[in-house]
Amino acid sequence: MSLRHALLGLLAEKPASGYDLLKRFETSLAMVWPAQQSQIYGELAKLNEGGLIEITGTGARNRREYGITDAGRAELREWLTEPGLDLAFRSAALLRVFFLWTLTREEGTAYLERFARENRERLATLEAIRDNVEWTGDPAQIAGWLILEYGIRGSRTAEEWARWATEQLTEHLP
Amino acid sequence: MSLRHALLGLLAEKPASGYDLLKRFETSLAMVWPAQQSQIYGELAKLNEGGLIEITGTGARNRREYGITDAGRAELREWLTEPGLDLAFRSAALLRVFFLWTLTREEGTAYLERFARENRERLATLEAIRDNVEWTGDPAQIAGWLILEYGIRGSRTAEEWARWATEQLTEHLP
DNA sequence: ACCAGACATTCCAACATTGACAGGTCAGTC
DNA sequence: GACTGACCTGTCAATGTTGGAATGTCTGGT
């Protein structure tokens, strides 16, 4: 039930259309919670039905702008202050590492090197964003900046780990 | 389509029953790819139908042991050597950080401190596992060891980030 | 006046995942 | 001899997620 709350959170900042929200997902949010367009529009309809958001205006090209309601704000707040903290994550890229031993040593290290390279590239991309965005003191923007920094540190750690893992594989695999 | 490959990978090491595989998921694999029991049994049935695995023996209590077939090995290999590398991941815990600004500063920092604490605990758990497991030179075990190290480094990075983020929130949030 | 490309929404089939329920067997211990 | 806890499998409904197709509108540039 995270997507609905992600949408509520975005709308808590300011009203937006499905298309606007989609753009936000493609840029900043994609890093921690990817979502497709079809899912976003569907969820917006449900949230509207449930009274957590409402239509606050319409525009050209069939545009419909949604705003969060008081009920929506309450729901968002409840979600954010829930006691449980879900550290779980899924990574297909790491899952594959588990089975690298079924390949030859060369194939295995090639995979890890690719892993390192991709993380290095992502690191560069994120750092470029950090250094080029104009940081106002806006609270919502600060939160985005924290996540961005998480991505930067995470990518760096992943890259270093992949280099280390390549060495280990070279040393320990027959 | 990662679960089916995870099962193939585990069976590539040695034959196992659904129950055995479930245990492997609960312990090592849970870190990178959680799966429920219902999903595992269902997927095993499909893999068996598709000829990627086969029943290699039965035991007490209705136990059925599956082994990977040549077709299964080929499929696993193909998956592992696919060109695309999917770095995407989902984290509900990080998603919440995006919306911390809607809470008071105290509530926000409390969340991040909890985040730091949980990662510290996970770090301790993983280090304990690393230091207590008897590491033979077994290839499959080495792969598990690499992942474990990833978890350790990732937890450490996450904890440090959360401490840093707590400071930032304290400084920059009104 | 035309066109490309961004804007904007809707619908759908297929697949993945969760959470719960339901059933039964065997080994060791009190 | 009864009980507990680990072993072992199966199924279902509901929900979440993906990927694609279809449709139409407005804006800016040539």
UniProtKB/TrEMBL annotation, chains A, B:
InterPro entries membership: Tscrpt_reg_PadR_C, Tscrpt_reg_PadR_N, WH-like_DNA-bd_sf, WH_DNA-bd_sf
Domain of life: Bacteria
Annotated ranges, domain Transcription regulator PadR C-terminal: 90-169
Domain Transcription regulator PadR N-terminal: 7-78
Family matches, as Pfam families: PadR, Vir_act_alpha_C
Protein name: PadR family transcriptional regulator
